[in-house]
Amino acid sequence: MENEKNNQDKRKYDLLQHNAVASFFKNRKTQFLLQLPLVLFLVLVVLAGFFGIQNSNKNFATISIWVIWWSLLIISIALAGRLWCLMCPFGAIGDWAQRRSYYKKINDTFSLSRKWPTKFRNLSLAAMFFLVITWADFQFNLVNSPLNTAYFIVALLGIVVIISIIFERRSFCRYVCPITGLIGLYSMFAPIELRAKEKGTCKTCKEKYCISGNEKGYPCTVFEYPGTMEKNTHCVLCTECIKTCHFGEPVKKEGIILGSSNRSNISFNLRSFAGDFLTLTKTRMDEALFILVLLGVTVFQTLIMIRPWAVFTPDLMSYTGAGYESVRFILFISAAVLPVLIYSIAVGISKLLSRKVMFKELFTGYAYSIIPLGLMMHLSHNIRHLLEEGTGIIPVISDPFGFGWNLLGTSGYMSAPLLYNNNILLIQWLLMLFGLGFSISVGKNISRRMFRGNDSAYFPVLTFVFILFVFNLWVIGQLIMHKH
Ligand code: SF4
Ligand code: SF4
Fold first, then answer.
1. How many domains does the chain have?
2. d(CA 455, CA 399)
3. What DSSP string runs through 299-312?
4. Which range among 12-26, 77-91, 299-313, 345-359 shows the weakest confidence by mean pLDDT?
5. Which residue has its alpha carbon closest to ligand 2 atom 4?
6. For 250, phi and psi rounded to 5 degrees?
7. Does residue 452 or residue 399 have the better pLDDT?
8. 412-416: Cβ within 8 A, 24+ apart
9. Which residue owns the Cα nearest ligand 2 atom 2?
10. 242, 257, 282: which is the final residue of a domain?
11. Are residues 230 and 361 in the same domain?
């Protein structure tokens, strides 16, 4: 185990070893300068949604959010984890309201700083919020309505600001944000991580400024402690601990210590894909359930766009006598619950094959092995959107409101797919194979580390993963009917 850890450490590359990178993140203005363009982007989206033409193909709000941003977000999570959170405009506005400062460190925040209720310190609210919004998308046609998109953003901003001025730090980001679970769990796959460089230094560190904050920065905004952090799930890469940690490496010249460098005991590493799964020791039931629900919802989002769905739904309506809305709602809930049930059966068989390990341990442990495949399924869904509809942004940036403007001279551009169906399908298959390979490798690693090399216990879960893979291959092979 120790050897494995050392090998993994050797494969990491700390970006903060370069003084220029460390200075960049230690500068308090950096995050503000990354957030500002996205806040302005959000303002434009809201204005276009409220006042622009109500045509989803011609309005900046719908194209930029649901085709471009959402697709790029999933790609960015796979490649850079929670980097989005560093510049997220919602988080920025919450921080600004709470701190009454754009980037300066201030001591008295404009917040009641209440502690988040203990029973909700998990992913339950975020999961509910995620399901409600996904359902609202179907119900109110969010992705096709510029006006509803604008209402949605304003409502979300209102929630962020209210929570920020009642509760301490970024309680919203940690416990409520509808995509925090999705970003956090998928981020475990990303080839970057922020960690304490030397856990031993943290143990002996008396000040623990990463927890308490100091004049250089705030305490961890999402209540993490880098000294024990072992996965990317919750760290929103706010970089406050890079600023506050005072254990810089000493600058030496000819053996004489001249002072402290710009570094700290925090490292910001490039690493191999799926790095978190190889060192994971603590698993959680709320995260395991979120992974399974997310899986179901991801499949459902693609299912409702394929041709067999258009045939299956009316058949079900006439068979049951229920209306379209009811049938769709029941299918949506089934999609969220079904993976939990099927996975539970698989883990039940695992339990029979591995009597010494508790059902709960197997359930939560193996659930993480599904993340790589789940992420690649999500990515393959969004890659299709991006490649087929993404160029729709080109005319819209010249005429964001659909008023007939031609600001950048591109409003006459006839958008067309970047790639055609067979090529997109090939990319989707490769992504899915990539995800399947990682899922199997992570599952075997979890068996070896957590369940004493009990490969027979993994076999039922492997079967679940494989069925999921084959089912998704079938789904993505169907003719897609786009919403835009
Ligand atoms: S991250 Fe830095 S401030 Fe925090 S405990 Fe470790 S050494 Fe101390
Ligand atoms: S661990 Fe550091 S970078 Fe991550 S959220 Fe906490 S303070 Fe920010």
1. 2
2. 58
3. HHHHHTTBHHHHHH
4. 299-313
5. 235
6. -65, 145
7. 399
8. 415/389, 415/391, 416/391
9. 241
10. 282
11. no
